[in-house]
Amino acid sequence: MTATSSTGRQDTPQDTAPTAPETVTLTLIQAVTEALRGELRRDDRVVVFGEDVGARGGVFLATAGLQAEFGVRRVFDTPLAEAAIVGAAVGMAVRGLRPVAEIQFADYIGPGFDQLTSQAAKLRYRSGGQFSCPMVVRTPSGGGVKGGHHHSQSPEAYYCHTPGLKVVMPSTPYDAMGLLRTAIRGEDPVMFFEPKRLYRAAKGEVPTADFTVEFGRAAVRRTGTDLTIVGYGGVMPDAEKAADALAAEGVSVEVLDLRTLVPWDREAVLASVEKTGRAVLVSEAPRIGNFMGEVASRIGEEAFGSLLAPVMQVAGFDTPYPYAQDRVYLPGPARILNACVKALQY
């Protein structure tokens, strides 16, 4: 059921949650924890592991309390060896488990890159469907915590470019819980990026009953007719702030949250842009090779006749992530608003 506020914002539609469920208020990281807890209880094939995820509960405490409840055979620490973590997950998945591996920061996935792109992603195709690889790699991603160039990057485009991997990045507690359940219950490897700056900043109502969120379905966060903003992950609160500023000036902005990048909801984006005639695409990854370039290309190919202005992109800069300049590097409300004004005045 979709609920619409007086501002035009909408709650997440098109999911499997029951009508008018009981809810609880959670932060995004609490939603991740509870999704993991629920799946560990539901399916004894689920195992959770990574660096410091056991007794400590992970560097951001996403797995706090899980080892105490489920024991060291199902929630356990690993060495500081990302290649081994990912490789072990592939082996577990092939042998019938449902591994959920945590990489402490998305920046550190590099040593496991070959395991992901050459093994996990290709296993179903290479085996002619005889094997699947139902594994999830969870990792904190993006900036906003002054972590610098080894703790703040947004590398999701690498994995979007690899057929066989699904790529997810929620921005709300509801989506974090529903999408993580879908990822764990699926049959394919999933890269599950968690925007760390929203871990405790994003709060929302989450149903207490079991529900999932379908991959490949964007959420309409706000309806509008004059311009479309498309984003995902950590940029979504800033996109909505820019939309609020424009609404105060009488501009009707539609805000779409992709939620998943592979697959991504091409139909929803095209329908919105065909309605509004203007698109501003927002992400915090560097501009070159940015996933939003694919979205812009599709809009240009399939909705060119509806465009009233060039497609605008607001992204991170093509530099290593700076230590103390989060507000400069990240596409905040001011940069998004500036792009929107350019599109409106074109």
TrEMBL record:
Coiled coil: none annotated. SMART domains: Transket_pyr. It is an enzyme of class 1 (oxidoreductase). Residues 26-201 form the Transketolase-like pyrimidine-binding domain. InterPro entries: THDP-binding, Transketo_C/PFOR_II, Transketolase-like_Pyr-bd, Transketolase_C. Residues 1-21 are annotated as: Disordered. Its cofactor is thiamine diphosphate. One of its GO terms (biological process) is response to nutrient. Its EC number is 1.2.4.4. It comes from the Bacteria. GO terms for molecular function: branched-chain 2-oxo acid dehydrogenase activity. Keywords: Oxidoreductase. Signal peptide: none annotated. Pfam families: Transket_pyr, Transketolase_C. Heterotetramer of two alpha and two beta chains. Directly associated with ODBA in the E1 complex. This is 3-methyl-2-oxobutanoate dehydrogenase (2-methylpropanoyl-transferring). It comes from Deinococcus aquiradiocola. The lineage of its organism: Bacteria, Thermotogati, Deinococcota, Deinococci, Deinococcales.
